[in-house]
């Protein structure tokens, strides 16, 4: 792994990891073609490049800047300045709601986000927006007196070439707190997950304490979003404390990232860059194990965390206790869910974990949609190959699709496997499923299915949504889908993609 903190610009996922946003086939085939834990790449592409389907258009997605909104914008005691037109700040409304709910779930003081837009206009696109940025930084300081200010760039500022770094350095000296530029122009990366890396890059460069005051041997960095506090009781069993980052963390909690005994995460899509960087730059070991979903993943994850923190005996006692505790209820759930088919449509590594939990519950999973695929993570350690772990421990997923949240493809993907329910995190896909008579479980709390209790949580959630299936069936009988009959009759969700690729081949 090589993370370069000498520059303010993070390397995109496509460059660093070979991230793709379009692929279709079986999960085992994707794992083999990724050439990660499966040996060398037959195509001679270095094991980090996959042949990616190229579509004619994108119907809907989000961008790197929006992920900076939900990361840097969720840091307490800080202000995020979006150096952009006002439209880029539209996400502030929903993220404010999520931020407040997250604070409430963690039993922290509830407050609103502190975000400012520089509101670039047509004239600024011609003459530059540096003066507006300087004024916004001073306004942020005078209004909120934060302990750090983050600056999110945008497509607009990338096009006009504003020197954001020079402004940040000038104002940092003037007001005496970190002013952190986060380069997250949406057009620089095909997938929004690069925005996670941009935020984490800036935090490691300018917020994390370069010389730790002390090593805290019982402190573990947990990289997550705004989910409920499930890690504290889990890690307490091993005599460990939790340092939640990045969302909902204070600036002080980010500063102490370099003092922890280890770093873990709930999803390698989110955690990969920061965890690897903390190990490389600050000597904080990243726990290299499968994600903590299902028995196989959670057992391995706990044992590796225990090995790194020298708490093996406590871990074995906790594992045995939890296996015994959930066994009776798990047996009941397996009986109740017998013959049920599920479908997972979420981010990449998170989907791998959720499918594992569904298989633990005895739910049939013949298909899944992931929004991107990273052939490798920043540690380059095969123990973190979450897709290989899924295939090896829980079997094949025949219809495994990578697609960047494209609504027009989702109809065909669901028709392939006809599930009884879907699991999602991004609610924009749920209405289409409802129109097909399929209920959805929107996991707003990303920790809901994590660990041993997560198996039970997810099983009970599935029973709850299946109890309302008749409502969705009635809805399907009385609504019309927003697509032409010709498209609905097609059996191939990637028909437009393959046609475009065929035409390109003919031109060559």
TrEMBL record:
Molecular function per GO: oxidoreductase activity
Ranges for domain Nitrogenase/oxidoreductase component: 73-465
Keywords of the record: Oxidoreductase
Short name of one Pfam family: Oxidored_nitro
EC nos: 1.3.7.7
Protein name per UniProt: Light-independent protochlorophyllide reductase subunit B
Native species: Sporomusa silvacetica DSM 10669
């Amino acid at each position: 792994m090589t993370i370069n903190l000498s520059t303010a610009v993070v390397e995109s996922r496509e460059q660093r990891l070979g991230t793709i946003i379009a692929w279709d086939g079986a999960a085992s085939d994707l794992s083999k073609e990724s050439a990660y834990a499966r040996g060398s790449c037959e195509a001679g592409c270095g094991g980090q490049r996959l042949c990616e389907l190229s579509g004619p258009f994108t119907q809907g997605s989000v961008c790197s800047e929006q992920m900076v909104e939900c990361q840097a914008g969720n840091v307490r005691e800080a202000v995020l300045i979006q150096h952009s037109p006002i439209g880029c700040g539209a996400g502030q409304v929903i993220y404010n709601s999520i931020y407040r709910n997250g604070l409430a779930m963690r039993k922290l003081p509830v407050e609103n986000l502190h975000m400012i837009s520089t509101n670039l206009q047509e004239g600024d696109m011609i003459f530059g927006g540096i003066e507006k940025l300087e004024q916004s930084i001073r306004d942020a300081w005078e209004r909120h007196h934060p302990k750090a200010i983050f600056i999110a760039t945008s497509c607009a500022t990338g096009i006009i070439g504003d020197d954001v770094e020079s402004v940040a350095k000038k104002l940092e000296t003037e007001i005496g707190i970190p002013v952190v530029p986060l380069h997250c122009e949406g057009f620089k990366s095909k997938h929004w997950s690069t925005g996670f890396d941009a935020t984490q890059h800036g935090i490691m460069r300018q917020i994390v304490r370069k010389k730790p005051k002390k090593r805290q041997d019982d402190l573990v960095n947990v990289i997550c979003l705004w989910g409920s506090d499930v890690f504290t009781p889990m890690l307490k069993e091993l005599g460990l404390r939790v340092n939640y980052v990045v969302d909902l963390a204070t600036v002080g909690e980010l500063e102490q990232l370099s003092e922890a005994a280890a770093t873990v995460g709930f999803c390698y899509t989110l955690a990969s860059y920061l965890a690897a960087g903390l190990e490389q730059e600050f000597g904080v070991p990243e726990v290299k194990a499968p994600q903590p979903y299902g028995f196989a993943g959670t057992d391995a994850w706990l044992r590796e965390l225990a090995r790194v923190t020298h708490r093996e005996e406590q871990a074995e006692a906790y594992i045995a206790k939890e296996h015994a505790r959930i066994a009776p209820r798990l047996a009941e759930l397996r009986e109740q869910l017998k013959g049920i088919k599920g479908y997972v449509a979420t981010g990449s590594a998170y989907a791998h974990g959720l499918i594992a939990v569904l298989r633990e519950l005895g739910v049939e999973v013949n298909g899944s949609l992931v929004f991107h695929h990273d052939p490798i993570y920043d540690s380059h350690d095969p123990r973190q190959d979450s897709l290989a772990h899924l295939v090896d421990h829980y079997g094949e997923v025949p219809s495994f699709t990578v697609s960047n949240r494209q609504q027009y493809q989702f109809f065909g993907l669901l028709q392939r496997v006809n599930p009884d329910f879907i699991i999602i995190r991004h609610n924009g896909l749920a209405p289409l499923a409802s129109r097909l008579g399929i209920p959805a479980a929107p996991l707003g709390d990303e920790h809901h299915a994590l660990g041993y209790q997560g198996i039970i949580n997810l099983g009970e959630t599935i029973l709850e949504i299946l109890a309302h299936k008749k409502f969705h069936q009635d809805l399907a009988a009385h609504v019309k889908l927003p697509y032409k009959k010709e498209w609905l009759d097609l059996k191939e969700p990637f028909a437009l993609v393959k046609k475009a690729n065929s035409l390109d081949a003919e031109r060559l």
